[in-house]
Amino acid sequence: MEHNVYYACGAEEALGDLARRGERAQLCYLDPPFWTGRDFGAYDDRFSSPNEYYDSMARILQGVKGAMDENGSVFVHIDERVHARLRLMMDEIFGERAFRNEIIWAYRSGGRARTHFSRKHDTILYYALSDKAFSTRWATRCRGSWRVATMRRGTDADGREYSAILSAGKEYRYYDDEGVAPSDVWDDIPHLQQRDPERTGYPTQKPEKLLRRVILCASRPGDAVLDVFSGSGTTLAAAHKLGRLFIGADRSPKPSAPRARAEGNRRRVGGAVGGNPPSQLRCGTSLFVPSALRRAGAKSTQGRQYSVVSLAPLCKGGAVTKGD
After folding, report:
1. Dihedral, 76, 77, 79, 80 alpha carbons, nearest 10
2. DSSP string over 122-154
3. Each residue of 30-52: pLDDT tens digit?
């Protein structure tokens, strides 16, 4: 992988093109449709049957496996609707021995259920083809204030708060502001509120802090990060800021009105993937560059930092032809 790529098309088309070109990524993050039965405007999460949804996910996960480096990792972000069957599907595709974690992202948001416990978490299934890429060295979380019955709270001479325990006559202090490796329950990353300045207008946008943790744990600078459900572009923006290459894809040719306002600028550009500088292409469809990616300072084809690839399924207004 020599430069960044953004595919203006669906996941299967993008993965098919990557397979033809033999491109590989060290880290894959997927935030696919949750089979909610809703049309979000930016994308349609309605399927005619369970089989249609799971057959589509099986093809995509097979394509992701083919796009993974031999030491690659994949994180699939889902919820209770599809978690059970996708876990079994991933066991079959990636192998049960590749399973690493079922990460719980617990968050607080408005609304309380009356007929069941409120559902306030998502699940991220983490599989890895080897243990070589994983590290929590740079992905620590703040310990925060915590204590058990045998611990006492204190403040040192510098004003730092801590929890302490005595063992064999020696005091061990655990400072609140110290970094600690995260467990498989992530309850320190809040859900994006409606007025959060990080929001781009994309309806199911995830916080950048969540993607930073995934990227820091399972990749190194210079590695390629793949996200074929890019949406707002948060994964790509986080990868760019952390010195990784990215391969993104999104099939949303008609973003919702809020996202369109957030974008503020249409692009009619395309580009070819490869080791050489991308060629200019023109397409009958106006393409939206993800807001989070533009906020991160990444430039499109003209700036040579990433190419925009528009494949045939989105070019309904005419064939793709080379531009000037």
Report:
1. 20
2. EEEEEEES-SSS---SS--EE--S---TT-EEE
3. 999 999 999 888 888 999 999 99
